[in-house]
Amino acid sequence: METQSIARRILLQRMQRYTDLGPALGSLGKACFRVESSRLRVAYATVSAGRAGDVVDTVQRYARPRHKEVQWQVVPARPGEEELPAALLARGFAQTENLLLMAHRGHIRAPLAASVVVKSITTWQEIWQYEYGSRQAFYDDPHPVHALVNQRASERWHEIERDWCNYYAAWLDGKPVGGGYISLYEDVPTIMGLYTAPEARRRGVATALLARAIADTITARNDVCCLYVEHGNPAERLYRHLGFFPLLDTQTYVWLAAP
């Protein structure tokens, strides 16, 4: 029952990000929408039994003349979403993410490597270095384009200035080797962007980052945090070892309207 309560809290806080109007679904069901310049995001739908295909058709008819990509997030365990994965694939959507939502209660109880130092990011140069390393790790890009790094680093610096997130950098032998951040504005804080440089893996970097982020964020009143991990990512084994427990799957599907 406790895990179900945590999952509901996390889904509710993410649902609140979808506040825009979208296509009227009428008796077919309901869904949450977020409209962006070239993309329509759909999530947390509740579809009448046997009508998933009709709901997807309605959304595609809405997006096509507006030349919008549709990005559809599905939580198959939610009532009303069970039939959506098959309906989306049948109508030309491609699955781009298959994530596991995990949660952790309390502090990390694990030995920390003395050689790893975790620092809170407080300067522009530090957030720029975080973004550079993040792009190397997540995009397998050894030499990220500086213009892209500058743009995303500016967005992250904006989050720091407004106390929306805490960012961290991990150092090993005097070199930056990883980073991550945690939200401060959510009911259940979310750990995101966790990465370790290839040459520093299996040396306790991720554990140290998680331990510091959680210690700085949880309180006696709210001692739960969460994260998402891609199914098949070896990091899932580490998270389970550190006490994270699985809650539910979240899948993302994308459809591009024909020009």
Q: What does this molecule look like?
A:
- Helix content is 32%, strand content 31%.
- The chain is α+β, with helices and mostly antiparallel strands.
- A hairpin with a 3-residue loop joins strand 1 and strand 2.
- Helix 4 packs across helix 5.
- The mean pLDDT is 95.
Task: Produce a short descriptive summary.
With 259 residues, the chain is α+β, with helices and mostly antiparallel strands. The protein contains seven helices and ten strands. The chain is globular and about 60 Å long.
Total domain count: 2
- The overall average pLDDT, rounded, is 95
By CATH, the architecture of the largest domain is named 3-Layer(aba) Sandwich
Largest sheet: 10 strands, mixed
Structural class: alpha+beta
CATH topology of the largest domain: Aminopeptidase
How many distinct beta strands? Answer: 10
CATH superfamily of the largest domain: Gcn5-related N-acetyltransferase (GNAT)
Helix content: 25-40%
Globally, the shape reads: globular
Strand content: 25-35%
> Could you tell me how far the N terminus lies from the C terminus, measured between alpha carbons in angstroms?
47 Å
The SSE order reads: HEEHEHEEHHEEEHEHE
Radius of gyration: 20 Å
Query: Low-confidence stretches at least 5 residues in length (pLDDT < 50)?
Result: none
CATH class bucket of the largest domain? Alpha Beta
Q: Order of strands across the biggest sheet?
A: 1-2-3-10-4-9-8-7-6-5
Number of helices: 7
